[in-house]
Every structure is written in C-alpha cells, then in structure tokens.
Design goal:
This is Alpha/beta hydrolase. About 45% of the residues lie in helices and about 15% in strands. It is α/β, with parallel strands linked by helices and about 325 residues long. The protein has a single domain, classed as Rossmann fold. It has an 8-stranded mixed sheet with strand order 1-2-4-3-5-6-7-8, with helices on both faces. α2 links the parallel β3 and β4. The radius of gyration is 19 Å and the shape is globular.
C-alpha cells in the first residue's frame, strides 16, 4: 500500500501538471526581458565584470574583512540588502547575482554542474584580486558555498551556511513538475500566473506577510531575464538527474563553520541542520524559532548579530596568535 505522504505528494504533482497544462493553453509563451529593460535592478552601487563569458552583476560595499554572499534558487543579490545595511560598517561585502539567475543570466555553454559553478567562483574572486575572505550562502547558495570552501580551503577564513541545500527533501510540487522531462521543458517557456508565483515566494517565509509586493515583483521580473527561466529549469532537472546534491564534501571542511536555520522552513526542512552540524567538524549551529527559509530577510538584526559574533571571533583569534 502507498503511504499517505506519498499519495499526498502524488496528488499535488498531478494537480500541478494539470495547472501547467492549463497555463500553456491559456497564457502561452513566457515573456523574455533584456538586461537593459531591467536596469532598475542594477542602479548604483551595482557593477558588472566579465568572468567566464558572463557579464556578472555584483555589488561591492563597505570596509573591513571581505565577506562574499551567495543567494539561492531563483533569487538575486538583492536578498542580502538588509544584512548589507547592518554590516557594511564592519565588512567589505561582495554579493553576486549567481550565474543562471538575476541579471548575470545563464552560462554561455548552458552548463549547470557543480564544477562549472566552482570554476566560475574561483575565476570571479581571482578577477577581483581577492585572496582570503569569509563566505556565506543561503539555500542553493549555501550548497555552493560549502562546495567551494571544500575545494579552496586556502581562500575561505570562515564559512556560513543559511538553510543550505544538500540532503534529500521533497520540494514544492511546482518544482517537482518543473523537473520532469517533457513537462519541465514546457514550463521553461510558459508564463505562470502571478498569483501562483507569489505563493511560492511567500512559502519561503514563516510569516508570509513579510514577503512584500516589491520583493515578489523583483523575483518575478528577474526570472524573466532573457534565458533565466530555461537555465533554472536545466538546473532543477540536473539536480533530479543526480538524485539530489553531493554532501560528501562536508567532511572536508576545515575552517570554522556556522550553520543558521529557521525552524519553520517550508522549502528545506530544519531536520537537515543537525545533519550538517554532525557532518562538519567543529561547526556551530543556531536554529531560529518562527523563522522560515531566509533568516537574513525575516530576522536581519538578530541573524546579523550572530554573524558578527562568529566572524569577529576570527579577528580575535588572529590577534591572540600574533
């Protein structure tokens, strides 16, 4: 007999398939927007730099030790805005529109594998002449952060993982459908109802009312950046084909690591937090009550204070060892 949970997921997928087919018939092909038409998301202090054939959108603000920030799936560097406002007096903060998302857009070779992302990050920091830095990432960005740190430990002083992707979980039904071979390719080029899209963004918050209309509009507009929708679909199907993510490299992490998690994460379950804590030697773990998938957006002050305490310990350690 099938379990109740399996049947629930199956019915959700079937319903989503029906919705997507209806959307195809009614809405038609998704619009594509140029970077120029989205220039209101790249106002100063935005910059662009050429890396691996991409014009990478990034921002470089503040003074002090370097802190690089990586966003999650279908997000952009704007997700860190509240942290930047709180932290730029203490750190030089560099945040990136990760390839296949935001204004950076898809890799020219259409690749979405780990090695392509790792080589991009290494070339990016080399282009900016960065030698050592702190590295933090949320969701998919958290996965990229620890993958990079495990390969280039000489670069990363301290690592911070916020609700990081990695261990197996059942994503929202819309993403399951997008990962399917034929239906996924249809979804790559199909315009979804704004209300459905907005509900997925709100799902990232423990308190859905904290997802403002401006934030939802930003997510929606940047998804329609030319090439992003299809690139996101390729990434989802790549993850499906690999049967998830590679978490084996967590045991190779040697730098101090802080794991942050919201206990009301409806995207990646909080039960993954202690798994990372156990897998990463000497790591620290903070679980926030009544917080969802993005602590830096829902509780920016508290999460920023915890980040400062963790990162400043590196400064104190260097002074003690001088």
């Amino acid at each position: 007999m099938f379990s109740e949970g399996f049947l629930t997921v199956f019915l959700m997928v079937v319903l989503t398939i029906g919705i997507l087919i209806t959307i195809v018939l009614i809405k038609g092909r998704a619009r594509q927007q140029t970077v120029a038409s989205l220039s209101h998301w790249s106002q100063p202090p935005s910059r662009f730099v050429e890396v691996n054939g991409l014009k990478v959108h990034y921002r470089d603000e503040g003074e002090g030790p370097v802190l690089i920030l990586l966003h999650g799936l279908f997000s952009s560097l704007h997700t860190w805005e509240k942290w930047v406002n709180l932290l730029q007096d203490r750190y030089r903060i560099i945040r990136i529109d990760v390839p296949n998302f935001g204004l950076t857009g898809p890799f020219p070779n259409s690749k979405v594998d780990d090695q392509t992302y790792m080589q991009f990050l290494e070339n990016f920091v080399t282009t900016l002449k960065l030698e050592r830095f702190h590295l933090a990432g949320n969701s998919l960005g958290g996965y990229f952060a620890y993958q990079y740190a495990s390969r280039y430990p000489q670069r990363v002083n301290r690592l911070v993982m916020l609700n990081a992707a990695g261990y197996f979980f059942i994503p929202p039904a819309a993403l399951i459908a997008w990962g399917m071979p034929l239906l996924g390719r249809i979804a790559d080029y199909t315009e979804a109802p704004y209300g459905l899209f907005a509900s997925l963004v709100r799902r990232a918050y423990a308190d859905p009312s904290k997802a403002t209309s401006d934030e939802i509009r930003r997510y929606n507009e940047l998804l329609h950046r030319d090439g992003n929708r299809a690139a996101g679909g390729r990434l989802i199907r790549h993850i499906r084909n690999c049967v998830g993510f590679d978490t084996s490299r967590t045991q190779l992490l040697t730098m101090p690591t802080l794991i942050m998690w919201g206990d009301q994460d409806h995207w990646i379950p909080v039960r993954h937090a202690p798994k990372y804590h156990q897998a990463i030697p000497g790591s620290e773990l903070i679980v926030y009550p009544n917080v969802g998938h993005m602590p830096m957006e829902e509780i920016p002050e508290q999460s920023a204070r915890d980040l400062i305490q963790f990162l400043d310990a590196a400064q104190e350690s260097s002074v003690c060892n001088a």
